[in-house]
Amino acid sequence: MEDVTPSSEQNIIDRGHDDTHFMDALLKETERERGDDTTELNFPLPGQGAKSDVLFNAIGVFARKGITETTVQDLLEAASISRRTFYKYFKNKVDVLESIYKLAAELLTARFKSERKNASSLTEFVMRCVDLYFDYHASLGPLVRMMTEEARRTDSPLSQHREALIKQIVELFDDKYHEVEGRHLDPLVHYALIWSMESASINLLTNTNCTQDEVDRYKGVMRAVAARVISSGLAEGCPDLPSR
Q1: Assigned CATH class of 10-232
Q2: Which terminus in the chain has less CB density within 10 A, N or C?
Q3: pLDDT band for position 33 (50/70/90)?
């Protein structure tokens, strides 16, 4: 029997993008990260074996057909492998999607870590992270929208990975704040920023054509919001940010 993960949003996936677009986009992010950081990152790439081929060929399949409509047979055909080989590495199609989500999360976290190390100020760090977040989501378009919406469902297998990703970003933000200001904020401050970014990203990918002008508009708003939140305790008349 085909494994099915519920999703009410598969029909809004943009069918105008093909498999190559999504593979190229994710590969571009992979290559950029590998060039920015000397840390050895365990990112599977096409041509490294059957498991890697399934992951990267599945990107376009999921983005084009959605979670519910995608079948294991679709993934087999896209990767040109046998069913026996598929089940050697994955339990079902959701297991494949989880692996893609974790890979994308690892890439994004690695980029944020690089910015934390290189940013000269707290404001620069936060605004650069906003830029990265929206550029990353816009470059992967419907795939990110589909995975984010799925991960926000509490009964989804992706939910735990979303929580882990957000927790890592919160810790990065708080570490940078402590480095600059000498104190730790209430983690809810950082969670609120990230939840806002996530919701804005879904709105961008769902309700606009995601042109560069639209992406820049969303980035501009979130950059301003994030910078004002982080610096509110230093501005005259603004309440201080709660510490922990």
Answers
A1: mainly alpha
A2: N
A3: very low
